Amino acid sequence: MSSTTSKSALGEFLGNLVRAPRAIYRAAFRTGAPTTDRSRSDFVFGNVFLHLHPVRTHRWSLRWTTTLGLGIAATAAFLLTLVTGVLLMFYYKPFPEAAYESIKDIHFVVPTGRFIRNIHRWAANVMVVAVLAHMVRVFFTASYRAPREFNWLIGMGLLVVTLGLSFTGYLLPWDQLAYWATTIGANIAQSPRELTDSLGITEQFDPGGLQKQLLLGSDTVGAESLIRFYLLHVMILPLALAALMAVHFWRIRKDGGLNRPEDADARLGPAPDATYPVFTEAPKKTYHLAAIVQGRTPAVRRGPENTVPSMPHLFYAELGVLMVTVLICVGLSLLANAPLKELANPSVPENPAKAPWYFLGLQELVSFSAFMGGVGIPAIVVVGLGLIPFLDREGAGSGDWFGGPGGARLVVWSAIVGLAAVLAVEAFAIQFGWIRQWFPHAPQLLITLVNPGTVLTAMYAAYSIWLVKWHNSTRAGALGLFTCFLCGFVVLTIIGTHFRGPNWEFYWSPAQWPTH
Amino acid sequence: MSETSSLVRSRLDPEPVPRRDFLGLASMGAAGAAMLFALVGMLRLPKAAVVASPSKKFTVQLPDSLAPGKAHIPAGRSVALFRDEKGVYAISLVCTHLGCIVKEAAEGFECPCHGSKFTADGTVTKGPAPTALPWLKVTPRDGEFVVDEDTTVPQGAKVTG
After folding, report:
1. Is the CB of A367 less than 8 angstroms away from the CB of B125?
2. Residue B59, strand partner residues
3. CB A36 within 8 A of CB A284
4. How many domains does chain A have?
5. What pLDDT, on the 0 to 100 scale, is given for residue A288?
6. Distance from CA of A243 to the nearest CA of B (A)
7. Are residues A27 and A72 in the same domain?
8. I want to staple A374 with a disulfide (CB 3.0 to 4.6 A). Which of A188, A304, A397, B44 is the partner?
9. Which residues constitute the domain of residue B11?
10. B2 falls in which pLDDT band (50, 70, 90)?
């Protein structure tokens, strides 16, 4: 008796051993292949990484023109920087000069080091572009409106953290470019002194000095600053970004999925015949009259509420965007190397000392007034953008590109106004200079308050208020203002990138820069 | 008797001050205050008590050949020293705009970063710099000069020695 038991136990043991791989697989993936509506649902909510997604997705959300895939592209670029960034940390040493040497090692000695660093650099750029473009998409489709106001605010937080990650990463190579861009950035943090100095209260109240000291841990860029920037870049900001991303994605679902027009269902019509099964399986039981049959009921050949299963429709689309993003980043990395200039030299600034391209619009404004260009106007823009969903409580045009009173026509006109204003103000300042040249003893407070940057901001604000009255709609004013600021941002960035040379003088092309 | 009975409230009446709510709110408030206090305390750490930066005082020997109006810039320092008939003076070369190092130009100084221009005595003539380049304290000592980058003096203050 006992021998037969032991024999069968041994047999069972061997059998289990043989079956173990399959059993392990089944334990990990309980739901099996996603072949039916039910198993497709299980596929999503049985997986911790996929369950942020809905089980079914509205067909409007899957149209290319709804999102252009920009949010997923930004996420994909972030994942690329995450993976490549961790790889770079194997060799990077956050200490002056050692940092420069380690980047040189990564560039010239480490296997695939240059390629990985290039991907990190390019993915960071792609991420900034994708985040900005995503915000433009959300704005122009009026998708910031209730109930999505809070997610718009989270998105603004993500934009700020993304720019913070780029800025802190800029210092790490410890080359001339890094050192001087960081010096300028830290002094922008200190620029509230421009205001407190002209009011004569810096001794009592010095938020600028405090900000700079907290950022640098010193009064100049040195070893203390590098370790702080490194900590922000590899730990604090990525964690903040990940937390905000989780809230951002979760809120999409809690706010009712992606925004769509009220008549989206009517405009979509029934799914094309080729659509991967909306209701795949023939009913297992016969429901007779209750069965879904061809007829005049509105739900014919549609999933519930015009949705399709997220597996495969949504996931394949996301995978497609991910692959395109990887392709772009890798392609750019093969074409152009991430720059590395000479070792940082605190006595000789790079000339011109330029920040990363997306900050060059700000640098252009900073060349008029440090405080207004670097702190005042950005703060006005961020607060203004954050307020938009709480001021625009209208409903018309939600979910449509350039939706709302005025529509695409208004956007085109606003673009013309916005371009004309920024070009006129810049041309004037480049041609005739500003107050300091005309009246060398003018008080600084006057220049802080009245400079090309604030004049341009005031022009845009006045135009937008006029739009609100003219169209009797806050959305019209917001459309105009956003378009104007977009034009301003693009033009100032291009001027800062291409038309400013040594001593921040205007040149028609870099070929005209004096050789030195 | 009737007076006391009127004071006895039914247990169905709402409490005038719900004791449990009060205690709950008070404890949550205390927890919130404690966390806020801890957060403020933690923020003290990154604000360095002693700023780690190179010494701001240095000694310099001026060459005898230094002509009036010509700058002597000690190696590794962002300070220009001048000597004329009235004495010796030092001007900081750190731009008052955003901290770039200005360089000597035909007349005075100019900043490579955002195009601020200064006269030979540091006054702003062009660009975004909010104030003049500061003059630094110079003290003569045994034929050499000690420059203190942390102490500014009024424009035009020169020392002999």
Report:
1. no
2. B146
3. no
4. 3
5. 52
6. 19
7. no
8. A188
9. 2-44
10. very low
pLDDT surpasses 90 at A311: no
- CB nearest to B113's CB, from A184, A191, A223: A184
Q: Do B113 and A353 touch (CB under 8 A)?
A: yes
Q: Which of A188, A210, A503 to mutate to test binding with chain B, by most B CBs within 10 Å of its CB?
A: A503
Q: Extract the tokens encoding A83.
A: 């993976």
Rg (CA), chain B: 32
Q: How far is A488 from chain B (nearest CA, A)?
A: 19
A322 shares its domain with A438: no
pLDDT tens digits, one per residue of A253-284? 899 889 998 888 888 877 776 676 555 444 44
In a domain, A206, yes or no: yes
The pLDDT score that the predictor gives to residue A503 is 84
- pLDDT value for A49: 86
* Token reading at A503: 């001593």
CB-side exposure of A349: number of CA atoms within 13 Å?
30
| Whether A503 and B126 lie within 8 Å, measured CB to CB | no
Q: A487-515: per-residue pLDDT in tens?
A: 999 999 999 999 998 888 899 888 888 87
* Residues B110/B117, Cβ–Cβ less than 8 Å: yes
Residues of B in contact with A514 (CB under 8 A): none
User: In sequence order, which residues have a C-beta less than 8 Å from that of residue A274 and are 6 or more positions away?
Assistant: none
Q: Does B152 touch chain A (CB under 8 A)?
A: no
Q: How confident is the model at residue B15 (pLDDT cuts 50, 70, 90)?
A: low
* Structural domain of A21: 10-44
Query: Which positions in chain B touch A348 (Cβ < 8 Å)?
Result: 101
Nearest CA in chain A to B79: A347
The pLDDT of residue B20: 74
Residue-wise pLDDT for A405-416, tens only, equals 888 999 999 999
Whether A241 and A389 share a structural domain = no
Count of CB contacts below 8 A, A vs B? 102
Which of A332, A305, A483, A335 is CA-nearest to residue A402?
A483
C-alpha atoms less than 13 angstroms from C-alpha of A261 in its C-beta half-sphere: 17
Nearest residue of B to residue A370, measured between CA atoms: B97
